[in-house]
Design a protein that fits this description.
alpha/beta; Ribosomal Protein L25, Chain P; eight-stranded parallel beta sheet; five-stranded mixed beta sheet; 7 helices; elongated
């Protein structure tokens, strides 16, 4: 007896689209999303596409027409509610574009809720194309089957970040000069929490002193080696998810 095909097909492409989605509603895609489905994935009438709207969750939709300029789908079935991710914010100093792209991508895969770019004295970059950054995290979320997009905030200067900090949110500071071991620190002060990671050259002495003086801040160590900015952001986010986030489940 032949096996029953998986529903929806595991090979079905995934896309984030504007919402809210609902059963029976038509969805018309233009531009890059349509080009991706029609020319890259070569979808045709009757094929299934997984749609997420960052509001109602994940839906299976059936292609009703696929042309050169647009792809039309009909929403068929609600598959999953929008996921709840831990209340964890990554405050990452801006890096060179390719390195910060890596931070955005991997933070999305790891389940970070908010990404807050930070401007420090030793930052090489001082601007972030938010539209491009949001497109990048959407693509990463599609690849790892997230149903909730991380929020990317406007870049903020370090002094402004500290001045406006909510004291109820733990602020873990990855300090290359040393601090508490990560697992005891993360487990002692769980969500809501945030991680602050510096740029290529690290924080200068006055920045380090200001962070350490903040009542919400706790310095942590990421081991015996000095890590690059992108490595520290990714590694520490993964450790937080393991110690205090949803990897425990």
């Amino acid at each position: 007896m032949p096996a029953t095909p998986a529903w929806p097909p595991r090979s079905a492409p995934r896309l984030f689209v504007p919402g809210p989605l609902m059963a029976g509603a038509p969805v018309t895609l233009h531009g890059n999303p349509a080009n991706y489905l029609a020319r890259v994935m070569r979808v045709g009438e009757g094929d299934i596409v997984i749609l997420c709207d960052d509001e109602t969750g994940e839906w299976a939709a059936r292609v009703t027409s696929s042309g050169k300029r647009d792809v039309v789908l009909e929403v068929a079935e609600h598959l999953r509610e929008r996921e709840e991710v831990p209340d964890f914010t990554l405050c990452a100093a801006l890096l060179k574009k390719d390195r910060f792209d890596l931070v955005l991508e991997k933070a999305t895969e790891l389940g970070v809720r908010v990404i807050q770019p930070v401007l420090t004295r030793r930052c090489v970059a001082d601007k972030l194309n938010l539209e491009r950054a949001r497109a990048l995290v959407a693509e990463a979320a599609e690849q790892c089957a997230r149903t909730a997009l991380p929020r990317i905030a406007e870049p903020v200067k370090l002094d402004a970040l500290l001045k406006g900090w909510d004291p109820s949110r733990a602020l873990f500071f990855a300090d290359e000069l040393g601090g508490e071991p990560v697992f005891p620190a993360f487990r002692a002060r769980q969500a809501p929490a945030a991680l602050l990671v510096g740029p290529e050259g690290g924080f200068d002495d006055s920045e380090r002193a200001a962070i350490r003086a903040h009542p919400a801040a706790s310095a942590i160590t990421l081991g015996p080696r000095i890590l690059r900015g992108e490595t520290a952001a990714i590694a520490a986010s993964a450790l937080w998810m393991a110690a205090a986030g949803d990897w425990q489940e």
